[in-house]
């Protein structure tokens, strides 16, 4: 089959080379963007007088026909035509004849592919932002029901201080808020148009880059044609943001896995998000959070893969850059599906209030508050810490929690203890005493929830 670039060649391409250098196996995903980019280009060629009205009209019609076939699933792609750009151009020429060959005037596949990638990622970034907001909404809704649900808070995975379940979940709300912000920031850089940069040096035709940029919804154009065709920073940026999204998802997933273990039993994920065991009939496995945790690996891998492709690449376009695609598509798919599963999984999970509540009565997580109690009675914090450490040790030896001790037992360690100590000891008072801004008391968490609500309203 004759190649669109076959003129200077005397031999057929080696078969394995043809297959391996082709990108159509994956860049067919850019078909819509490729046609969109071509339409903007042809409108501009006409308004600049580079193509006649008639030629442009033929090409537009041809592109619409190709677009319709694509949407009807009737467009076939072949390795012989290497990539999506040449496959579409070939279809166009098949539809309207030789005039279709005028579409590529003043353009190169190098600015064309960069344009397609920008358009694709612009769209995907916006979609992923919406999906992030859906997850935030699910967290917000669940938190609203649980400002007064108390559970142990951990550091080092050791019981630390009792906290509100809403407080714990809202921590993830803010992580996803930063992810949202990162994607939002990246939009202004994705919105640079490379179209019109040509192969690397610009073009001899009197094109109007601002015009195509505007038609495609870009904010501005790359000021340097060499940078325009060889920049893949916007993909790296997207992949970095995606890595952080997956990192956050993996941390939350890990909490779900732990919380769903029989040892904790703090939550139960809905049956529709779990699977069973082929041998152990009693099992209900949290496969979804496990997979989400693991898929962080491929997203991180894709990021490092692209950074490695770009490292040391000379200007301008190099075939190496074709390797930017599969990782990007995979990252987009992984993040999209992760968020799609996460929102309904959160919305449908059962929170075992009673178990969590019981847990905070069987630990020493009120110890800090007894130290603070002595500080309020005038002791330096270090001294108070020492006294309470001794009381905890005593409790451990006697098999008693701090809640079980009598006033006499407390007073044996320090004479400042009085009857009011018992109100301080209650896990709920411990939680609600943390009224500082961003703290875990019910009042502070309700304030935080309001702030989260305002954030969602702005989206
Ligand atoms: N398929 C190529 C890619 O994905 C398109 C650009 C090819 N340009 C070229 N001069 N070979 O990067």
Automatic annotation (TrEMBL):
Residues 364-431 form the Argininosuccinate lyase C-terminal domain. The keyword Oxidoreductase does not apply. One of its GO terms (biological process) is L-arginine biosynthetic process via ornithine. The keyword Cytoplasm applies. Pfam families: ASL_C2, Lyase_1. GO terms for molecular function: argininosuccinate lyase activity. Residues 434-443 have a biased composition (Polar residues). InterPro entries: Arg_succ_lyase_C (IPR029419), Argininosuccinate_lyase (IPR009049), Fumarase/histidase_N (IPR024083), Fumarate_lyase_CS (IPR020557), Fumarate_lyase_fam (IPR000362), Fumarate_lyase_N (IPR022761), L-Aspartase-like (IPR008948). Residues 444-459 have a biased composition (Basic and acidic residues). GO terms for cellular component: cytosol. It is an enzyme of class 4 (lyase). Pathway: Amino-acid biosynthesis; L-arginine biosynthesis; L-arginine from L-ornithine and carbamoyl phosphate: step 3/3. Its EC number is 4.3.2.1. It is found in: Cytoplasm. It comes from the Bacteria. It catalyses: 2-(N(omega)-L-arginino)succinate = fumarate + L-arginine. Keywords: Amino-acid biosynthesis, Arginine biosynthesis, Cytoplasm, Lyase. Residues 434-459 are annotated as: Disordered. Residues 7-301 form the Fumarate lyase N-terminal domain. NCBIfam families: argH. Belongs to the lyase 1 family. Argininosuccinate lyase subfamily. This is Argininosuccinate lyase. The lineage of its organism: Bacteria, Bacillati, Bacillota, Bacilli, Bacillales.
């Amino acid at each position: 089959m004759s190649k669109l670039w076959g003129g200077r060649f005397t031999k057929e391409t080696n078969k394995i080379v043809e297959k391996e250098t082709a990108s159509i196996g994956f860049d067919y995903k850019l078909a819509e963007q490729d046609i969109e980019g071509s339409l903007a280009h042809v409108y501009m060629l006409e308004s600049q007088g580079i193509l006649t009205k008639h030629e442009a009209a033929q090409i537009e019609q041809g592109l619409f026909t190709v677009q319709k076939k694509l949407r009807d699933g009737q467009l076939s792609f072949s390795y012989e035509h290497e990539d999506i750009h040449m496959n579409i151009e070939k279809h166009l020429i098949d539809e309207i004849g030789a005039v279709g060959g005028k579409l590529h005037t003043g353009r190169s596949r190098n600015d064309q592919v960069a344009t397609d990638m920008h358009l694709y990622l612009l769209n995907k970034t916006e979609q992923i932002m919406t999906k992030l907001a859906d997850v935030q909404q699910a967290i917000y809704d669940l938190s609203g029901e649980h400002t007064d649900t108390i559970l142990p808070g951990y550091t080092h995975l050791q019981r630390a201080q009792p906290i509100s379940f809403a407080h714990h979940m809202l921590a993830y709300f803010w992580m996803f808020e930063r992810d949202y912000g990162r994607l939002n920031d990246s939009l202004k850089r994705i919105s640079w148009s490379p179209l019109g940069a040509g192969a690397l040096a610009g073009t001899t035709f009197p094109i109007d880059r601002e015009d195509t940029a505007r038609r495609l919804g870009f904010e501005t154009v790359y000021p340097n044609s060499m940078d325009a065709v060889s920049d893949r920073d916007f993909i790296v940026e997207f992949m970095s943001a995606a890595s952080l999204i997956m990192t956050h998802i993996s941390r939350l997933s890990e909490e779900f896995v732990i919380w769903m273990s029989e040892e904790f039993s703090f939550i139960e994920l809905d049956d529709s998000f779990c699977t069973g065991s082929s041998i152990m009939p009693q099992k209900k496995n949290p496969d979804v959070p496990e997979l989400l945790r693991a898929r962080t690996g491929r997203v991180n891998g894709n990021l490092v893969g692209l950074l490695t492709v770009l490292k040391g690449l000379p200007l301008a376009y190099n075939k190496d850059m074709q390797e930017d695609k599969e990782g990007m598509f995979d990252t987009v798919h992984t993040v999209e599906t992760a968020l799609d599963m996460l929102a309904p999984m959160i919305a449908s999970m059962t929170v075992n209030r009673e178990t969590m509540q019981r847990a905070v009565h069987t630990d020493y997580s009120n110890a800090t508050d007894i130290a603070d109690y002595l500080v309020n009675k005038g002791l330096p914090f270090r001294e108070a810490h020492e006294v309470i450490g001794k009381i905890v040790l005593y409790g451990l030896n006697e098999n008693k929690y701090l809640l079980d001790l009598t006033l006499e037992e407390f007073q044996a360690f320090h004479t400042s203890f009085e009857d009011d100590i018992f109100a301080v000891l209650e896990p709920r008072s411990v939680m609600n005493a943390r009224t500082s801004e961003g703290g875990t008391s019910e009042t502070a968490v309700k304030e935080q929830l309001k702030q989260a609500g305002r954030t969602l309203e702005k989206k």
